[in-house]
Automatic annotation (TrEMBL):
PANTHER family, A to Z: AMINO ACID AMINOTRANSFERASE, BRANCHED-CHAIN-AMINO-ACID AMINOTRANSFERASE 3, CHLOROPLASTIC-RELATED
Protein name (record): Branched-chain amino acid aminotransferase
GO terms assigned for molecular function: branched-chain-amino-acid transaminase activity
Gene3D superfamilies hit by this protein: 3.30.470.10, D-amino Acid Aminotransferase, subunit A, domain 2
Length: 501
């Protein structure tokens, strides 16, 4: 069995073979990995068909220790230096080992891609796995290598534990945890992107994680959860992405890796008081791109208030989203693609869409462009909206206003779009308020893919995120390789039922 991203299915098996090496130094094409049986695999080849050599050390019968390194004209083992001839593609990985130290167990031909466990920094990031049709990723839950967990206990010292990797998509949680019973939880949404191949080996970057760290801290304050320090948040997010780097989609697909940090009360508790134990987890999932996004019709929700005037509207907590589901489903049935909330106190001002931030575009007779976003204490501080406004002002010289937006101003907007992590910007074709028989239409372009301003901002935003447009803002944070053994030492919540191959 091959683990760590390789298929269990053996395509072809060849007879057992033993080799004795007489050379003073042997060269193996390799990406080495120790599976759970204790065997080490040296895996070579590209594009689907790869050869795996399973072997143990001749002398100790312990997993052999081979140091992989990117192929270059010079490689160093200990104090010995060897000159390598350029006989292999630069994209190959090589490992060097003393002669006579190993014998092979057998050869197999398997279909899969290089696993990421135990890699060195020079091997990072690995290429995307080939077990996924990257042109049809879609928006569904997929199995990845696992997730990252960290725990907090007031009784245990009041600090967050060092993150650990769990090779499972499941959490171990007591049924009486306040995160389940009282909604004591907060979460985030962010993305990681693979840069073009020509950029430093197709590095992986996360878009503006510092902003998400700060927003989660503010959300945690609302529900009496100890703050996750920014440095710890960033570390856990980096490790979760790095440990699943093979699931970051190829650059050319336009797809990304969705990142879901989640913090919740996890200790068993009966009373409605702040508990002692909390858990912070980071899940990741490859997600597709919104191909051919078209303008959608929006419906103003008139019989439901998203949040009370002095409530939790600005916190990213589950309680702000689940109650909207029945209303949004009803709107979908009536052919509205998104729902819009007015302020709950007067129902006369724009707050936000149920899933994303509101941005309106005003155009002056002189050709000037102004972006307007709501100034309300009951809306989420959208990372996407803030980024779009920064781009608008710094790149295109547009004016940006953050202020109260009366409902009556809607017909004065030339364009309206919804800003969020999932689709970045979604052009709004119309906004309807049934009770007033109002339907305001907006420019979404001839093909309904967005008006002129929307398309300019979206193209620039996505370009910065995926590395095709210079990141002059310094928003992208490069993902670094996990420490050696971080993934290999993963624990399982329930290995018999939930371990991810």
């Amino acid at each position: 069995m091959v683990s760590g991203g390789l298929s269990k299915k053996i395509i072809q098996r060849q007879p057992r073979t033993t080799y004795l090496f007489k050379e003073s130094l042997i060269l193996l094409l390799a990406f080495d990995h120790v599976d759970r049986t204790g065997f080490r695999w040296l895996i070579s080849g590209t594009k689907g068909e790869i050869e795996a050599v399973r072997f143990r050390s001749l002398d100790t019968h312990q997993p052999a220790r081979v140091r992989p390194a990117f192929f270059s004209t010079r490689a160093r083992i200990g104090v010995q230096s060897v000159i390598l001839r350029l006989i292999l593609p630069l994209s190959e990985v090589v490992a060097l080992a003393p002669a006579g130290h190993y014998k092979t167990s057998h050869f197999v031909i398997v279909r899969g891609t290089f696993p990421t466990e135990g890699t060195m920094a020079s091997d990072f990031p690995p290429p995307p796995v080939d077990s996924i049709d990257w042109n049809n990723v879609g928006f569904k839950v997929r199995e990845v290598n696992g997730h990252v967990e960290s725990h907090f206990s007031h009784a245990g010292g009041g600090t967050w534990s060092e993150p650990r990797f769990v090779a499972s998509p499941h959490l171990q949680i007591h049924g009486m945890a306040p995160g389940l019973n009282y909604g004591q939880q907060a979460y985030e949404g962010m993305k990681a992107f693979r840069a073009p191949p020509q950029q430093q080996g197709s590095k992986i970057t996360i878009f503006r994680p510092h902003r998400n760290a700060g927003r989660m801290q503010r959300s945690a304050d609302f529900v009496s959860i100890p703050r996750v320090p920014e440095e710890h948040f960033l570390k856990c997010v980096n490790l979760a992405v790095a440990a699943n780097a093979g699931f970051v989609p190829p650059h050319e697909t336009g797809a990304a890796m969705y990142i879901r940090p989640l913090v919740f009360g996890s200790g068993a508790q009966l009373g409605l008081t702040p508990g002692d134990e909390y858990t912070f987890v980071v899940f990741v999932m490859p997600t597709g791109v919104y191909h051919g996004v078209h303008g959608v019709d929006a419906l103003v929700l008139e019989d439901f208030d998203r949040a009370a005037p002095e409530g939790t509207g600005s916190a990213k907590v589950g309680g702000n989203y689940a109650p909207v589901l029945r209303h949004s489903q009803r709107a979908y049935a009536e052919k509205y693609g998104i729902t819009l909330h007015l302020d709950s106190k007067t129902r006369s001002e724009i707050d936000e869409f149920s899933t994303s931030a509101f941005i309106g575009v005003r155009k002056g007779n002189d050709g000037s462009v102004t972006l307007v976003t709501p100034d309300s204490k009951n809306v989420i501080e959208s990372v996407t909206a803030a980024s779009v406004c920064d781009i608008a002002a710094s790149v295109f010289g547009y004016k940006v206003e953050k202020r109260r937006i009366p409902y009556e101003e809607l017909p004065e907007f030339a364009e309206v779009f919804a800003a969020g992590t999932a689709a970045a910007l979604v052009p709004i074709k119309s906004i309807t308020m049934v009770s007033k028989n109002d339907k305001f239409a907006f420019d979404v372009g001839a093909d309904e893919s967005g008006g002129e301003v929307c398309q300019l901002l979206l193209k620039t935003l996505k370009g910065i995120q995926n590395g095709t447009v210079e990141d002059k803002f310094g928003w992208n944070v490069e993902v670094t390789a996990p420490p050696k053994g971080f993934v290999d030492g993963a624990g399982d919540v329930n290995a018999s039922a939930t371990s991810v191959p």
